[in-house]
Amino acid sequence: MEELGTIQVLVNGEKLSLPDGATVQTAIDTAEAPYKKGASVGILKKSESVRSESVREYRVKTTKGELRLEIIDPSSASARRWMESFRQYEGISLRWSSKDATAFGPFSESLKPERNPTKLDKYDVLFSAGGYNPSNFHLLFSLAEHSADYGAPADGPFARVVGGKKLLTSFERSDRILEIEPVIEWQESAKHLVTDDINTALEEGDGLFTFIKVKLALESPEGAEFFFGLIKDGLFEVDDESSSFISDSSLKGEICSFENFEARRDGAVWVRTAGYGTGKVFISRDERAASVVHSVIGHIEQGIELIHMAGKGHSIFVKTDPAPINILGMGFKEAAKHLEGLGVELVREGYKEDDANIVKLNPSSTIDILLAKKVIATGAPDSLVIRVELYDELAPKTLDFFRHAAGLTFRPIGTLPVMMIYEDTYLFKAAKSAEKYKEILPENVLVDKTKAFEIGITNQAAKRMGIVGVKTEDDDLFGPTGEKFSSTNIIGKILEPEKFKALTEKDTMYVLESKKEEIE
Question: Is pLDDT of 518 > 60?
Fold first, then answer.
């Protein structure tokens, strides 16, 4: 019996041996690669791939995190030496640190040390020979603008730090450089395939990319929450592209605060914060200058190749660092256990009993919680937290309004204060006036009768547009908000009617959305 051959492929950068005829699914299962059903994967063909002649950027992975270096002048002797021998510097440890610089080493080098002061800008990178000894070279990172004699070659700095700058002041003697990788720019002539067909066969030398990992910027806590809202189903939906970016307009019109003024280099994730296209999220494919209306919220840490391959209509699976802290809707005990693993203290507020559901956090953002190592969680009795089913297929545009108004766009739990209760009718007015920027055109309007516990919203055909209502009894004359049928869009139903009937005009109803598969 003839023995089957094998092929060598790369799965998210890791080498893997697979049997001939292996598919994308085989590779994902074998590598245990991050992937979400329905997402697009990228396949880069080795035989047709073309690399740019001059690599200008490098990832330097350390025990504290990742730095990114950009070569200043590729023709300088130090830059050429780096590009030829960067693997030589993997494994070197922090040797010394001062207020002006930090250095990793030592290692031997063929470059000639000079006995002259070198003028350095903040974040410059250069070779430095202790005692002018070629066997005692170090990789030196400048922490401030200064001038000093470091025994550097005549050409001085050969690179600058463009990513991970905050790491430079956190290094300790036990830290070391783990790995150095060039950031490869694949020219447009490279042959590739982007598909959601996991039965696609792979060939020898193929590079498979199944996801992107985004390192969120600590300077952008609100931007990170905005991004979590965008990818709450795990996918970045590419609906526009150019040679310099791909974008997702799912949250277009939603306001995000400007937080981080930074150059938008290849792999930068940024959101437009003002003007036309506010709320649109972009991922860069090239270098762009910083902008006062484009706030950088993170950078691609892994999977940049997929960004360059994906096009309009593709869905990209996204993982983030840090992952979102999703404890809203949890009980206090469950949340405390989850936070314990993150080193975060939980403080109870509001209704503090064990049967409470968490409905509010302070601080509210994942990044601020992790930095503070503490969060104040407001609890509400379970009787006020009510599960609902929403009719996405019947009323998608109205639900876009509802989720924005109730806060479900960015949080797993929504807030609806009770406005009025009369007879069998309960009316709610969301705290957020989303009707100012979201339309509520007639959609899935009532025809025959109102069904008890269905949720209705007054549409633009009536003056009280945006009011949310529920009736506890069937009604042949009026909709859930008390309007005529043609002015009422039906968006879902209450799944816990007994809890609902106990609401008073002093209460706030907290809404938890149940997915169709959970209900079934």
Answer: no
